Amino acid sequence: MPAAPLSTVPSLPSSPSPSFRGRIGCDANSGYYAAPRRYRLHLSLSSPHSLRIAITHSLLGLEETLPIELLPAVPDMPDGGHSALLPLYEASSHRHSGPAVAPVLSDTWTGRIVNSHSAHIRHDLARHFGGDGPDRPVLHPHGAEEEIEAVEHLCQYRIDEAAQQAGQADVDEAARRTALSSLLRVLGTLEARLAHQDFVLGDRMTAADVRLWVALVQLDTVHRLHLDAAAVHRVADHPHLWTYARRLAAHPAFGCHLDLDGIARRHHARCQGLEAAGAAVQILDWAAHITDTPHAPAERHSALHLRPSGPA
């Protein structure tokens, strides 16, 4: 049975654009170019944007090439920024007036920020730092960019935003029903695909799987808390999709970065809404599916620090 096509959706209003959009080039003539240990990632793994980068970083085996500085799960500044990033922001933008947010890719040679846009950072890691080792997936295979972009759009608008709107108490009931129906249609399309293939785009892992897995984590650990119980049961009624999520949780590049406690603390620090009955209906026990595996020396501290201490 052929997989159902993935379609994009019209652009919707989004959050403010990241401040820095420098890109990694191919050689010294490009300005910013790939060089071992020249760059540093600054990530808060409770944030889905940072979590996607951390997974990509591990899949590509960049522990020795591109160090990671981990930031607290809950930003320590009133504007939602991290005080540890303020010097970088101030050095990179004179009188920077916005929050010093993660994720950030910084250049240790200049002491400035290169990029703070999650999708660009992930793409540049895969294009310019990813090796050709047999255990390293080709996250952006030739000819797949359009489908990967379609999955990005579906996750942002038809999973993340639809789930958020479906649980908003200050939205009228008809709008909540419409949002839930949109969410369920996309989950159904993905369910049909994953009934016949191991990954979103076929038999090999791509960047689309990183994007979808983090969206499913957010759906179960954040958005579910504001849905009613009946809606959560309908979301959970996609066995191939959630089996896929459970399988990737057991992959060391995914599960070792999952900071369940941090996600909960970050959500409760920012959320103004009320919990609904769906908060009591957990879809996956994420912590139970994370496999303890050996880590490289550069990873070991963060893996031990981020291991969830109990059920989600």
UniProtKB/TrEMBL annotation:
Biased composition (Low complexity): 1-19
GST C-terminal domain ranges (all copies): 141-272
UniProt-listed Gene3D superfamilies: 1.20.1050.10, Glutaredoxin
Stretches for region Disordered: 1-20
Stored InterPro entries: Glutathione-S-Trfase_C-like, Glutathione-S-Trfase_C_sf, GST_Omega/GSH
PANTHER family, per database record: GLUTATHIONE S-TRANSFERASE OMEGA-LIKE 1-RELATED, GLUTATHIONYL-HYDROQUINONE REDUCTASE
Protein name (database record): Glutathione S-transferase family protein
Species: Streptomyces venetus
